[in-house]
Specification:
2 copies of one chain form a homodimer.
Chain A: H1 2-13, E1 23-28, E2 33-34, E3 39-43, H2 48-59, E4 63-68, E5 80-83, H3 87-97, E6 103-106, E7 113-115, E8 129-136, H4 140-146, E9 152-159, H5 163-173, E10 178-183, E11 195-196, E12 199-202, E13 207-209, E14 213-214, H6 215-230
Parallel strand pairs in A: 1-4, 1-6, 4-5, 6-9, 9-10
Antiparallel strand pairs in A: 2-3, 7-8, 10-12, 11-14, 12-13
């Protein structure tokens, strides 16, 4: 808290902050896809990376909107936070805010699949095996990439294997400007930790490998890159 | 905190507490059943009911072992807490502690089904639909009921419909002594709230309907019932 205040104080002394006037949309955390009123599918995303980016972006002068799945975290006070549960709710909120956004940082781990049928009452256990039929959720990042006008688009690739291959594929397939990739099975880079080990890839085959650092430091490095990229972009 | 200390102080003045020398095993929270290293299947249990019972039982002099799934809660300091993730881990811990236990209160919402195959690497999304084949987990409560020697067994029924019917069925099928039933769709009785509205059923068709009250108060009422029942039981 005090560190944040001091940080804010010193940041403000120069008056013009690097992300002044920039609207940043950040998504964070997991989504939950219901099976019935009691059970759901989810993932291990803690939201820490996205919340760290939101707080740092705000300190750098950006107007931040944070769209968050269910997490245990306290949202930064300087940020407009919107809470969602499912991938569909996340999609709706992101699309609503997209037109007025300059930069989108999609750090949320949105479910790719959801149960096709959602039972209105708690399912009873009768049988020994059960097939849950899953259908694809809307691919938010793909949709954003296809409808990009002036926005900078930053994605994440949390992988367990073939990290670089999957990250570069995603960068191209989704029409991203940057992708932040990590191997979630590496010690210090997994879900729920306060640290991360990431590599940032850009459209021009540029690649910055960062060592183990706090998620706050990763956020600052990423926002430095974005600030740099924004200099070549006409802000609406 | 202060309330707890005062409570402890006044509770201790009498020296002999109602649950002195009683070993209570309490389970709390949800379980998580992995699909792959990133995704899992879970439920909305917050663990609040179980943690409240653990804290109250400890104040009443019981030696409490709390076996908890992943929650956001701070475990009571006077209680031995063991953390687990999956239904199988929960089962293993419960069975290890069962023989030396006088009372088991199973407030955890243990998954009935888990994915049959767990992928060692993050599954990639290729297809439009996906079938997740689920298999039954071991029914802990049933196992406890079948292997009951001297233990008092208390179960929970969190339902969305036909609450009394399902609760009484479970009481008999699992050889329980008490079952605490609630309708999780009722306002003030759902997951994650600090209050609950429960009905406690016993083996002799006795039924106590409690009004809306805090989970701490529900815990005290339940432990009163248990204390009363224990008077007729030879503690090992």
């Amino acid at each position: 808290k005090i560190v944040t205040l001091i940080h804010t104080f010193f940041s403000c002394r120069d008056r013009v902050l690097p992300l002044d006037g920039v609207n940043i949309l950040i998504t964070a955390g997991p989504t939950r896809e219901p099976v019935d009123p009691v059970r759901y599918f989810s993932n291990h995303s803690s939201g820490k990376m996205g919340y760290a980016i939101a707080e740092e972006a705000s300190l750098l002068g950006a107007k931040v909107t944070l769209i968050s799945g269910p997490t245990n975290l306290q949202p930064p006070q300087t940020v407009q936070t919107i809470f969602v549960e499912s991938a569909q709710q996340m999609y709706d909120e992101v699309m609503t805010h997209y037109p007025a956004t300059n930069v989108v940082i999609k750090s949320a781990a949105v479910a790719d699949y959801r149960p096709k049928k959602v039972s209105a009452t708690k399912m009873k256990k009768h049988v020994d095996t059960l097939n849950i039929e899953m259908e694809r959720t809307t691919d938010i990042l793909k949709e954003l990439g296809q409808n990009k006008t002036h926005q900078l688009l930053v994605g994440f690739a949390a992988e367990t294997n073939s990290v670089e291959e999957y990250a570069l594929k995603k960068l191209k397939a989704k029409n991203l400007d940057l992708i932040v990739a990590n191997n979630v099975t590496t010690e210090g880079a997994g879900f729920g930790t306060d640290t991360n080990i990431v590599t940032i890839y850009d459209r021009n085959e540029g690649k910055v490998e960062l060592p183990l650092m706090s998620k706050r430091e990763v956020a600052r490095k990423l926002l430095d890159r974005i600030t740099h990229l924004l200099k070549g972009v006409n802000l609406k």
